[in-house]
Amino acid sequence: MLVLSRRPNEKILLPSANVTVEVVSIKHGTVRLGIAAPRDVAVWREELWNKAGQPQASLAAADQSGPEAAMRDLRHLVRNRLNVAAIGLALLRRQLDAGLTREAAVTIERMTGDLEMLQGRLDARPAAPPSPSVRPARKTALVVEDDRNECELLAGFLRVAGVDVATAGDGADALDYLRTHDQPDFVVLDMLMPRCDGATTVQSIRSDPHYVGLKIFAVSGRCPAEFGIETGRTGIDRWFPKPLNPEVLLRELNHEPVKQA
């Protein structure tokens, strides 16, 4: 094994593989690396490989053939789009109540675009079988969702409701965020995502003692039993089915005490 010492912005070159590794930052004992590699060179996190040295199969990639899989995919698609609509309407109500007419117009455009996308997907899809004096501390949340529109709508709803929100596009981005930022009060986690799904993300968080006490709220159109994850401190703290009612999620966020600094 070759051991090198590098400072931020310094690079390591692997010319035979056309790979460049750059130290992006060093914070809280964690080194953040940037890796530039050709498309045909696979780059994997060690924790995403199984003991046999093969990539872990994502739940979303399992059983992709047959009428049952087609119906399951269709239900998942519709649930996700209904979820976007429910979150969008809840955000729109909050924005209108707050007099945020310009922001409300942007939300309407997002919802309209999402409905048009759903219509296009369905048309193209093969037919399938049937106030106190002292202000309380603001809650902080990391919303993890691979659907950009759904992610921004939910994040927007929570922000209008007074929650400080960061976002991540999948489990891998979420783990990077947690390693390089202050720990949030909650992770609101979609379970079916590419690259690093919800189950893998939960396992990584719960196996790291730095994240003891971090609340994980799962959001999914599938049953908890399908993921084989416990409910409670060692797994998922709360489970919310899709389509999500954002007001119910917000009540649960507000019900939980904020961690003390």
**What is the CA-CA span between the terminal residues?**
40 Å
User: Rg, please?
Assistant: 20 Å
Main-sheet strand order equals: 5-4-6-7-8
In DSSP terms, counting alpha (H) and pi (I) runs of 4 or more, how many helices? 6
Major beta sheet summary: 5 strands, parallel
Order of secondary-structure elements = EEEHHEHEHEHEEH
Q: Which residues sit in consecutive blocks of at least 5 with pLDDT less than 50?
A: 57-64
User: Whole-number average pLDDT?
Assistant: 81
Question: In summary, what is this structure?
Answer:
The protein is of the alpha/beta class. It folds into 2 domains: 1-43, no CATH class; 58-129 and 137-261, Response regulator (Rossmann fold), CATH 3.40.50.2300.
What report would you give on this structure?
- With 261 residues, this protein is an alpha/beta fold.
- It folds into two domains: 1-43, no CATH class; 58-129 and 137-261, Rossmann fold (3-Layer(aba) Sandwich).
- It has helices spanning 67-97, 101-124, 148-160, 171-180, 198-206, 246-255, and strands spanning 11-14, 19-27, 30-36, 140-144, 164-168, 186-190, 215-220, 238-241.
- Strand 4, helix 3 and strand 5 (164-168) form a beta-alpha-beta unit.
- The radius of gyration is 20 Å and the shape is globular.
Which short descriptors sum up this protein?
alpha/beta, 6 helices, three-stranded antiparallel β-sheet, five-stranded parallel β-sheet, 261 residues, single chain, 2 domains, Rossmann fold, 8 strands, globular
